[in-house]
Write a structure and sequence with these properties.
The complex is a heterodimer. By secondary structure, chain A is an alpha/beta fold. Helices cover 33% and strands 22% of the residues of chain A. Chain A has a domain of 187 residues: P-loop containing nucleotide triphosphate hydrolases (Rossmann fold, 3-Layer(aba) Sandwich), CATH 3.40.50. Chain A has 9 helices and 9 strands. Chain A is globular. Chain B is mainly α. The two termini of chain B are 22 Å apart. The mean pLDDT of chain B is 89. The chains are: A alpha/beta, B mainly alpha.
Chain lengths: 270, 260
């Protein structure tokens, strides 16, 4: 199997504002992703994280600000979104003028599904379908991979192996990755940086320097996850007009005294 | 073949066979007067007589040709209109309401006009068939195109699929199950409407045979045409079903059964 190394592309947002239906979903956010970085973005539903990803993917347009994406991004959605009427191999080659079946089989082998190339997606399990979607993304040699909660619909065990698979391929190929999720532990396990989005702004940023692969349920991961979780809960308690500016000031986030879920949010590290 | 599958194959035929037996019995015992309804065996005899004379096959052949050609024209137009209105809101605004209104008009009401326009020839008959089968194909194509999963279209767009490739890869295959449902309806209706179309100056065809039998009170022939219609309708359905299976191999079996 040939190893493919793709250099990741740069992503840069400045003062990016997105209005949808007269409502500001994203309010002037700044983000810089260096080539090959893995960025995790967490936030509760309605925080604008999916909109951010859709703008980067070119599925929504921004209202104000600057958006630079160094290479055409490839998206992995929460649903596999395979064409039911095409075989697994045909799905993997979607969008390529003249897909090379040998390469299609190679990327399928990388996700462990080379033997299902001729089957229709309806015969695969949910986890297998998501792996085909990943193979389809890899087929395009992505320099930027956008992940919109791609593990959210998988059962716990499948999710763990899918996360490992994505991380392994990312380390091998070196593309830039941006993961949107509401699973805080997942964000910490995979991200070089974890950002918390709330009400259209980044309110928290954590640079995760733990060595990879990171150990699920380890004390370090747990501590960072608890800090991130705290940031999410704290931000929700503030008035929408006065969001905390932790991310912009670059200051360490200080958990405020009055937390509505103190025990859960500060989660004792095991 | 396992016993269960055999039973499943045979089950649909139980009711018609029991009905035939009861009917024959009722005729023989005189409960059912023969001038009101001939016995099944008499109908069978009429069938054998017509086949051996050779004219029944000619009538069936002529009818099949009319149904087939009318079907091709009508389904073609319905498909094109359905694709156009399905893909463009503007065209939908222009075409949908008049088409829906035309759909409500019974074919029988058109006959005098059609005779005026096209005379008594083949064109008039084909017109009736084509107009009738057009609507189910149009409606189902339109709904098929509209119900293509927007998530798939969005996904394809992120992979830079657009224009004709979008139709070929996503929209047409997505609409195909619905289009085939329309064709299935149309195929059945193309036979049914012959009873109307072949009243227009016809000298051959199943509709002509039925009309003739009615005029001359040939009850055995009349019932024979009714039975033939039932069998041909079933055959058309089986044909459509096998076309469906061939064109939709990707559909899981359970889904296909549910659609039937």
């Amino acid at each position: 199997m040939s190893k493919e190394i793709t250099r990741g592309a740069e992503l840069s947002l400045r003062e990016l504002t997105v209005e949808l239906g007269g409502r500001e979903i994203l309010r002037g956010i700044d983000l810089h992703v260096k080539p090959g970085e893995f960025i995790s973005i967490v936030g509760r539903s309605g925080s604008g994280k999916s909109t951010l990803l859709r703008v980067l993917a070119g599925l929504e347009t921004h209202t104000r600000g600057e958006l630079k994406v160094g290479a055409p991004p490839i998206v992995m959605f929460q649903e596999p979104r395979l064409l039911p009427w095409r075989s697994v191999l045909q799905n993997v080659g979607l969008g390529l003028r003249d897909p090379d079946p040998r390469r299609g089989l190679e990327v399928l082998a990388q996700v462990g599904l080379a033997d299902r190339a001729k089957d229709y997606p309806s015969t695969l399990s949910g986890g297998q379908r998501q792996r085909v979607a990943l193979a389809r993304a890899l087929m395009h040699r992505p320099e930027v991979l956008l992940l919109d909660e791609p593990f959210g619909a998988l059962d716990a065990l499948t999710r763990i192996s899918a996360q490992k698979l994505v991380e392994g391929l990312w380390r091998e190929r070196g593309f830039s990755a941006l993961l949107v999720t509401h699973d805080v532990e997942e964000a910490v396990l995979l991200g070089d940086h974890v950002l918390v989005l709330d009400d259209g702004r980044f309110v928290f940023r954590e640079h995760v320097t733990l060595p990879r692969p990171r150990v699920r349920n380890s004390a370090e991961v747990g501590r960072i996850a608890a800090r991130v979780l705290n940031a999410i809960f704290d931000s929700g308690r503030e008035d929408a007009d006065e969001p905390p500016r932790a991310a912009e000031s670059g200051a360490e986030h200080q958990p405020s005294g009055a937390n509505i879920w103190p025990n859960f949010a500060r989660g004792e590290t095991p | 073949m396992t016993g269960v599958r055999l039973r499943r194959r045979l089950a649909p035929w139980i009711a018609p066979l029991v009905l035939l037996a009861v009917w024959e019995l009722a005729s023989r015992t005189g409960i059912l007067p023969k001038n009101l309804l001939p016995a099944p065996l008499e109908v069978a005899r009429a069938f054998v007589r017509s086949v051996s004379r050779g004219d029944l096959l000619v009538h069936l052949g002529v009818s099949a040709l009319r149904a087939g050609v009318g079907m091709l024209i009508g389904a073609g137009i319905g498909l094109a209109l359905g694709l156009l209105t399905g893909l463009s809101r503007k065209l939908q605004l222009v075409f949908d309401t008049p088409l829906q209104m035309m759909r409500a008009v019974p074919a029988l009401a058109l006959v005098p006009l059609v005779i005026l326009w096209f005379g008594l020839g083949e064109t008039a008959k084909l017109f009736i068939v084509a107009v009738t089968v057009m609507f189910p194909v149009y409606l189902n194509t339109f709904h098929g195109v509209r119900s293509v999963d927007p998530q798939l279209i969005e996904m394809a767009r992120t992979y830079h699929v657009s224009g004709f490739a979008m139709y070929r890869e996503v929209i047409l295959p997505g609409a195909l199950p619905s289009i085939l449902v329309g064709l299935r309806f149309a195929l059945g209706m193309s036979w049914l409407v012959l009873i109307v179309a072949e009243t227009i100056g016809a000298e051959q065809g199943l509709g002509y045979v039925a009309m003739n039998a009615r005029e001359f009170m040939q009850m055995d022939i009349l019932v024979l045409t009714i039975v033939l219609w039932a069998i041909l309708g079933k055959l058309a359905d089986v044909l459509a079903g096998s076309v469906e299976q061939r064109l939709l191999p990707w559909q899981p079996r359970s889904q296909r059964m549910a659609a039937e």
